[in-house]
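User: Show me a protein chain along with its predicted structure.
Assistant: Here is one chain, sequence first, then structure tokens.
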Amino acid sequence: MVYQAFYRVYRPQSFSEMSGQRHVKQTLQNALLHNKTSHAYLFSGPRGTGKTSAAKVFAKALNCENGPAKEPCNECPTCLSITEGSNTDVIEFDAASNSRVEEIRDIIEKVRFAPANARFKVYIIDEVHMLSNSAFNALLKTLEEPPPHAVFILATTEPHKLPLTIISRCQRFDFKPITSAEIIDRMKQVLNDAKIESDEGALKVIAQAASGGMRDALSMLDQVVSFSGDRLTAEGALLVTGSIGEDIFYQLAEALLSKDAASALTLLDRLIAEGKDVSRLAEDMITFFRDLLLLRTAPDLEDLLELISGNERFVSLSNAFEPETLYSFIDILSKTQQEMRFSNHAKVYVESALLKMIHLDGQVVQTEGRNHQAVDPHLSQKVDSLERIIADLQQQLANGVRPAEGAPVSQPKKNASKSSQSFRIPTGKINEVLKGATRQDIQVIREEWATMMQTLQRSHSALLEETEPVAASDTAFVLKFKYEIHCIMASENSSLRSGLSDALRNRTGKAYDVVYVPEDGWLKVREEFIRNNGLAKQQDGAADSPENQHGVAEEMPSFFQEAEQQNTDPIVAEAEKMFGKEFITVHDD
């Protein structure tokens, strides 16, 4: 005969064979006993938790020749035909491959005909969330008022995708993930029937990897049996499922405890080289530290452990960690797991997480016998300052001295605004630009500035609206901001910097480096540059001596003359060209 997988051979044929889902079984059995079955049911829950199996068992119990009964007999012709899938009155419909409205209309047309040889016509629609909107609409009326001989059972893993009008017309049963203990019991029954020996550790590894799905567990069991032969071992189960043994976790925890970064990273690299999935690795580490935390805080609950055993070795290991440290490990790994979803470098995130965990214990300080996580040093300074002030005031009150009204009391300084603290004026870069600045370079940038601004993104151009190029060399230019907060925002925006450089390159043919500076900072740096290079003195002398003017003009960077000029309105400039400056008077309204 053709070999059949375990999950097909050992599919539950009665409610008693189903693992878990006690609330579902008891409700359906009571409805059968009291003849209070409904016309429509919705079975929802994770994959492999028994939704379709429960639907078939329920269909057999409804149509059993000895029923309706609490359990189908599985011996009468009706039960046998439903089990074999040959009964024409129990229709299994796969909505994933038949999602069009035409298939649903075919069901609607045939549902009014009486069953051929059974008591009820049962329609089992699997993956019902895959139906199209038009198919749902076509099903709606029939689902609400079907013929008395018809029963609909809808099964789905994603009930949130179903229209509320469909859900409201059904009795809903939420299937829960099957516990590891229930999965292990079922696998033991399968192995006993197949006369295959196994280690308890192997079954535990498979149950943990199945994540609450019985079908996944039996599929992996089938694979491990094929790999191991006559006896299932934990090593074979670990290799087939891609899980990690508790010995590896023990070594990793010891490396973290001893702050041995080399051992921890080497161990991680070895696991990845063996083909372990990085995302699964992070998930298993979270579960491992959760088990350690459970052993540390509630050692009596060994039955809740998922990855490790509660032997003395792991009990002593859990006692070596403080609960706060284990909480921090889980928090770091959880954040890492979230960030890995959006990156192609998952290994780097796990390595960074291990290094954070190794250095975490170095930040835990002992204070009065209790461990406290290290806080922000600036916050510590403020707290210390406040404590000193309070102590001084308490001492003065104890001595009968009251602070005079209006006397200055030392207080911690208020937090300065972000704009006044976080931006540091790049004096060195500005001076380098000023040393090579020329009138021609600043004119080139100013001439192209307005046109270039129109090519930028709207958010970028809005941020640069109150700016002005004030000095330029052959390779860089200084961009002055009217408001310091805009300067900070621009300096922290890497996309703005690259977009501005690309736009200028397209307009001028040169790749300029941009130096950001607020207006106050620019005036200060410019004044210092003039003073340090003796340009102010030369400029004063030039006023008295016409013959010095030529020398000053040569030594003094020509961009200053350009920078001194205010931004002239183009209309005013054109009028001055036509009529001369002496005939033009500008009035600001």
